[in-house]
Amino acid sequence: MFLLHRQLKNKFLILSLCSFIYCQFDVDFSLESKFAKDSNSSFKNPTFFENYLDVNLYIDDLYIFTQLEYSYPPLMGPNQNSLSDAINMVYVEFFNDQVEFTLGNLFSMYGMGLSLHTYEDQNIDYDNSLYGFQTIYTLNDSYSLFILAGKRNILSRVSPQEITPSISLQNRVLSIGLNGMKDNLSFQYLTMMYEQDYDYNDILSISSLPTMLGDYLVENHLESMIEYEPDYKMKNLEHNIGFNFYSDFFEIVYERALIYYHKIYGERQEGYREYMSTYFNLFGFNFILEHKDYNTPYLYSHFSNPPIVSRESNSILASRNLHTVNFNNEIGHQLEINKTFESGLNIVFNYAFAMHYNENDKPENFKSLYTYLMESLVGVSNILNNKNNISNFIDYKPYRQVYLEFSNWILQENLYYKIGYDCYHEYLYDKIVLSKTYPMQFTYKLNAGSSATIYFEIQDEVKNDVKHRYYYLSPSYNHFGEWTATLFYDVEENGDDWLGLDYTININDLNQLSVFYGSQKGGLVCANGSCVIQPDFEDGLKLTYRTSF
Description:
549 residues; two-stranded antiparallel ribbon; 28 strands; 55% strand; mainly beta
């Protein structure tokens, strides 16, 4: 009898607690489920099966976020199909007028991210967040203090072709900073100390990188690594300072990080990362000029994700030749000009170039190439097309991209068009690539909110003197915002083609279902300069369901 009473009492307490939580807390959930099976898979082994459940809890000044994942198998990365892997991320935030405190997974960006920028992107299977705590304490209206401490075993890839990451480094980080603001000027200072633990397999993987760090390990330590299988622990220190001055028509941002680190098995090094951007308006034209100089060629960094200083294209074909940024060894510029005329016509022009430092640098070669790139919009193309000079510049990996776009609403704002031109030219580690892409979009408004869109692209590409032509066509129809049907046709001239149909229905305000059947070409997928290659999808079915409750 006593035991039964106790059981009932416990149940009552649980129900009461649940009622209390329900009354006091604001809770919402969102679920995304993806299932895909192509012609190369069996039902018991789908191409991928991914499920993400986001849980958001709010109570007064407290916010709790948890993401649960079941992926078996995922599109990219390792399986997550056990209870120990179920919690993908979790953090607690407390905030009031003076204090912001975070405990758990830390997603933080300090300044422009030259020293510290942690984020997560499931599309490229990237997550460099730390486990620990972060505090921002507001001293007064002008100044605030920042402190972060955390650790994490962070996974990374040697190359975008890897489905599963091959490098796993244990990181421990302590960072302290000061932010200030006065009138139109803001500034920050950050000091950051971190340790990295390398085991033999990690170092062996890094030695395969086609970079100065990889070359250094092969030339100086590969034999001893194979014989003794040594581990290594690295301690690094960074000092970061920056400011931002802005007005109605002008803005300038400058940030510089001084880095003190060791070569793996080697001597102490000094390096730096520098970024500057300027915005101004002249005669109705908006000008944005960016400069980057990232010079730590022997460092393998997880937390530096600064600006890429190049345009991230939303073109399907152009995005397959995106420039992968080397955040430890790259110098370059980007210029963007845009203007909207009284007629509604909008014009965008973008020019970006970059190059690497080289260990056996000849100052006259570097200066000659850099000056040439600065002075000529076609500089990279001319250098790469000149077979006599390319041997002098091949180690610098020069890159250049030009983009021009026109867009407007016409016919009493019933027809929208966007026509672009993208020219990409880069010397990569194993090939020279030149591609010219012509993306076009036309959208026509139909009755009562319906619309029809045609997206069309042509690309001419040359890889190591071998020519290719690609076409991409995607017509779609949106029915009053209730459902959308889209056809995808991707074809290489005298080669393979991919055809697929997607139907997406908004069941209600909280539920959406997408069904895709057919084939899709894989390729390079990038976010903030980090890239992976997703595989082709052949004659299969994809289901995506999204809900909030």
